[in-house]
Amino acid sequence: MKIANTFITTIFAFIILLFSCSDDPESSNDDLLVEIEFADLNENVDENIAEGTVIATFTVTVANSNSTPTLTIVEQTPAGAIRLDGNTVVVADASAFDYETNTQISGQVRATLNGVSETANFTFSINDLNEVEITLADITEQVNENISAGTEIVSLGATVINSDSDPTYTIVSQTPAGAVSLNGNVLEVADANAFDYETNTQITGQIGVTADGVSITVDFTIAVIDIDETITGDDADAFITTWRTTSSNESITINTNADFSNYNYRVDWGDGTVSEGITATTTHEYANSGTYTVKITGDFPAIRNAANSDNAAKLQAIENWGIIEWESMSGAFNSCTNLVYNASDTPDLSRVENMLAMFSGASSFNGDIGDWDVSNVTDMRFVFRNTDTFNQDLNDWDVSNVTTMQGMFVNAISFNRSLNDWDVTNVTTMNGMFWGATSFNGNIGNWDLTNGPDLTLMFHDATSFNNGSINNWNVSNITLMEKMFWGATAFNQNLNGWNVGNVTNMKDMFWEATSFNGDISGWNLDSLINMEGMFDSATTFNVDISVWDVSNVVVMTRTFSGASSFNQNLSGWATDMVTFCTDFATGSALTNVNLPTQGCFAP
Fold first, then answer.
1. TM segments (predicted)?
2. Beta strand ranges found along 184-226 (DSSP E)
3. Taking 80 as the threshold, does the pLDDT of residue 214 lie above it?
4. How many CB atoms lie under 10 A from the CB of residue 35?
């Protein structure tokens, strides 16, 4: 009976299992084969489309699945033109969408899901647009050397298609730098010095042209033509200069020096007009703008230009000195900012004593004048002040009669020549002589200063000067050294050989001379009265000067202010006479124990 029941139970379970495994009309689609319908894609796309732009969407239909297939690029021509973001098509390489390069982008994409895949072809036909086109041929020109600044070289005329905008022009590069400039579409001379055949046989570079966001670059080559610069015949006797006017009916003025009355000269104005019997300053008007060669003959003792005058800027070049007997060069070429030097002869300076401000402000001047005879000159104040480009050898000049060289090279930022052979025994003032001459590092160690010239501000802001020991200078008769090395940031020489016993004023002498740490421990300061700011901000200085005799000094205001390295023992200084000592050691390393204790410093 028990066996029978077991058999019946087994049969019943089998029947239930059989029915549970039969077809279920409600079963999931995932058990069925996935079907993918993937349509080819054919679209038109404008050229010059930006990278990242969506240009189309693939349509993919899936049967028997709720999942999304994965799309991948199988191939494309040209390679890398598009990429996929899901089922959207995105521009990957904008340069491929250029009708002139590719008229279409084509390829194949595969859609894959659950092991099933289908492919579809794509073709993007690129539409040709009316693009902005700029054409300008490379520029080849030639000009004669010694051309004036502002002279037109060539007018640029780029052709622009499919745009109403005027093109703009820029200089991309040029060799030598700064030779030319653009005035609108006119390429013109910027630096007349660059147009010297002996220096540059050609000027080269590139110009950019832009219109409506489209740009091209063209090359330019300007050949500099060598001309015969020899002046012959009657012209060899003339003082010849070149002048430039920039507008119609513009005039130039030949300025004379009111200190002289012996004028009687003739001027060929270079436009067919000649004026004779002139005895004073004269003016001439030119009908047309241009560059004119002006020739002066006769009695013409001096030419003079006023500071910062518009007229001075019109003078472009000295071409020839001629046989004129000059009597003064005071202010001769003052503020002639465009002046260059083409003369091969030398001026007769045998009667010239005054060269005050002769080339002051002549920022383009760099003439070779080292062979001039200046032996009778006494005044060389400010001769080369603000001559930005001047850097010629003057070591052979005979300056033995010069008495003042005040400000001679003020802000002559390019000048850096040895002047070691100069005889300066008669000079009484060198005040500010190299002030702001930031390149100057010439040797002047042999100078004889026994005449005791004023050395105030002599090397102020001469930031390169440290060449040729000046320790052997005879300064025994000098009384003024105020601000002598102020801001001379490179200077660091031993000056212990100096006899400064007659110097009364050393105010700010080494102010901001940040490298100076030269030995001056043995100086005799018997006559010194003013030490105000003497080592102010001389951040390296820390020489032992504890034995100095400062018993006659009255002013010690700011003496070591900002001298951040200085901490010598000055407690033994005899400072009974000092009445001014405010900020004596402010910002220095001096400790209280090393400070003076007498006079103004007494507790």
1. none
2. 186-189, 202-211, 214-225
3. yes
4. 13
> Among the CATH numbers 2.120.10.30, 1.20.120.450, 2.60.40.60, 1.10.10.650, which is that of 133-225?
2.60.40.60
DSSP code of residue 29: G
**CATH 2.60.40.60 domain locations along the chain:** 35-127, 133-225
Place of tokens 């072809």: 121
CB 179 within 8 A of CB 260: no
Please state, in angstroms and rounded to a whole number, the distance separating the CA atoms of residues 578 and 228. 70
Residue type at position 444: I
Q: How far is the CA of 56 from the CAs of 39, 40, 42, 92, 467, in angstroms?
A: 13, 12, 9, 13, 74
Phi, psi of 501 (to 5 degrees): -60, -20
The DSSP 8-state label assigned to residue 586 in this structure reads T
pLDDT in tens, 39-51: 999 999 998 899 9
Q: State the pairing for strand pair 250-254/340-341.
A: unpaired
The long-range contacts involving 224-230, CB below 8 angstroms and separated by at least 24 positions, are 224/142, 224/143, 224/144, 224/145, 224/195, 224/196, 224/197, 224/200, 225/142, 225/143, 225/144, 225/145, 225/197, 226/145, 226/197, 226/198, 227/144, 227/145, 227/146, 227/197, 229/146, 229/342, 229/344, 230/344
Alpha-carbon separation of residue 278 from 249, 270, 298, 496 (angstroms): 22, 17, 10, 60
- Per the CB < 8 A criterion, the answer to whether 343 and 321 are in contact is yes
Residue 279 main-chain phi, psi, to 5 deg:
-120, 5
C-alpha dist (Å) from residue 247 to 211, 244, 250, 255, 287: 30, 10, 6, 21, 9
φ and ψ at residue 15, rounded to 5 degrees: -65, -45
Alpha carbons within 13 A on the beta-carbon side of 54: 7
pTM score, whole prediction: 0.69
Q: Who contacts 446 (Cβ-Cβ below 8 Å, separation ≥6)?
A: 420, 421
For the domain 35-127, what is the CATH code?
2.60.40.60
d(CA 476, CA 345): 42
* Diameter of the chain measured on Cα atoms: 164
Q: Tens digit of pLDDT for each residue in 456-495?
A: 999 999 999 999 899 999 999 999 999 999 999 999 999 9
Q: Which two tokens stand for residue 348?
A: 């007769």
**In angstroms, rounded to a whole number, what is the distance separating the alpha carbons of residues 119 and 108?**
7
Print the SS3 string covering 252-280.
EEECCCCCCCCCEEEEECCCCCEEEEECC
Identify which has the larger pLDDT, 308 or 568.
568
Hey, what are 485's tokens?
């090395």
